[in-house]
Design goal:
It is a single chain. The longest helix has 30 residues. The chain has a domain of 170 residues. It is an all-alpha fold. The two termini are 33 Å apart. It is built from 19 helices and no strands.
Length: 404
């Protein structure tokens, strides 16, 4: 068997095993169930029943469906999240196939597996990535109103969750800047729309009274449990304090210091991102492709850095970073990659000789298997549960016990 056939077989086997493990995890989560007052479910229930507030758009649409069609909110939330997962897989696998990249990437830890392993598939993250996907599709279209429509999509996704603004606005600005060779200020006017929306969101961040009114609209009487709705009343300083304490507290009886492990995970994710061109069949311009995604991943990481300071869901922020970087890489046309290449001067030999890059696909496959990205708390159990190699071993041991 040739080396090419071996890589193809391993890639397909990895895709099949990933899908099987992720489907099993989703089914198990549905069987166990999420509490109506859980952080995951309540994030989708934030609405405008107490007036305009950040993150309220999707929740208000769900509230409308419940009021006028008599549908249970829990079922609507689960249905939305499952549809988003299916749509995410469909959109990204098609684009990966078109770009001649392995399809297992769409269900890897860099993309869909991360929120599913952490249980955060019942949140807004995957939906926001779908909005980002269509935003990038519009962004690179040669259509008169494409940039305007792209900014309108950003407005909607920001009203669903403000984090979308952090990783979408900078790339839209960069693309307009690179394409605006005539230096006309009018080209930047569409950016004013999402900017104004973001300012409105910051001003209308919410308070305890707003949170209580939203809880009343869903008949949630338990106010003792912390959830996404009650967090609207948290002051900024309190949120930053929780993030700091959570990520600087030793876990596993003092054996693990989370910042060190998060730093290592970020380096591995960065390594995998910049080496994605290694998987491409056409290696004619792989140095240029590496240079592009190297710059791209750096820009996107800088864009989400404020989220690391504002919240302690580091696994979610890494999911945003890796997913958006891959999405832009899939959509960026050759002329745009060449524009970036000519604007930012880095010797292409760096992308051949640096230890940051590799042509060894086996190394990359191994990293995809052993890399874990916990959603929130960094400890041994959460890390292992977020890796494919551990999940494969668990599933094989279960089959072995059942048979013997």
């Amino acid at each position: 068997m040739t080396k090419c056939n071996t890589n193809t077989l391993f890639s397909r086997s990895l895709l099949f095993s990933q899908i099987l493990i992720l489907v099993t995890k989703i089914i198990n989560d549905i069987q166990v169930g999420y509490k109506m007052t859980s952080w995951n479910v309540t994030e989708l229930l934030i609405n405008y029943e107490s007036g305009f507030v950040r993150r309220g758009l999707l929740g208000h649409l769900i509230f409308f469906c419940c009021e006028y069609f008599g549908l249970p909110p829990y079922n609507i939330v689960l249905s939305i999240c499952i549809i988003c997962i299916l749509l995410y897989i469909y959109l990204f696998t098609n684009k990966l196939f078109e770009k001649q990249l392995p399809l297992f990437l769409s269900t890897s830890v860099l993309m869909l597996a991360s929120p599913i392993f952490s249980g955060d598939w019942v949140r807004k993250d995957i939906l926001i990535m779908i909005f980002f996907f269509f935003s990038m599709k519009l962004l690179f279209l040669k259509y008169k109103y494409a940039k305007l429509l792209c900014c309108l999509l950003l407005c909607i996704s920001s009203l669903i969750h403000e984090s979308a603004f952090f990783f979408t606005f900078p790339i839209i600005f960069c693309v307009i800047f690179l394409e605006n060779k005539s230096k006309r200020p009018i080209k930047y006017i569409p950016l004013l729309l999402p900017l104004c929306i973001f300012i409105m969101i910051v001003i209308s961040k919410g308070n305890q009274e707003v949170a209580n009114n939203i809880l009343d609209s869903w008949n949630i009487t338990d106010r003792t449990t912390g959830n996404s709705i009650t967090s609207l009343g948290w002051p900024l300083k309190f949120g930053i304090k929780i993030s700091y304490l959570q990520q600087t507290t030793f876990t596993d009886n003092g054996l693990i210091f989370p910042p060190l492990l998060w730093g290592l995970i970020i380096l591995i994710v960065y390594f995998l991102l910049v080496n994605l061109p290694t998987f491409q069949k056409n290696l004619e311009k792989y140095e240029t492709q590496r240079k592009f995604i190297f710059i791209l991943a750096t820009i996107q990481f800088i864009s989400i850095l404020p989220l690391f300071l504002l919240g302690c869901d580091y696994g979610r922020w890494i999911f945003y970073w890796s997913s958006t970087s891959i999405c832009i890489f899939l959509f960026a046309p050759e002329y745009f990659i060449n524009n970036v290449d000519s604007l930012i001067k880095i010797n292409l030999s760096f992308f051949k000789s640096s230890i940051l890059f590799t042509n060894d696909k086996k190394t990359l496959y191994i990293l995809f298997l052993i890399l874990g990205i916990p959603g929130f708390v960094m400890d041994t159990r959460n890390y292992l549960n977020s890796t494919f190699i551990y999940q494969i071993i668990v599933k094989l041991s279960s089959i072995f016990k059942f048979v013997f």
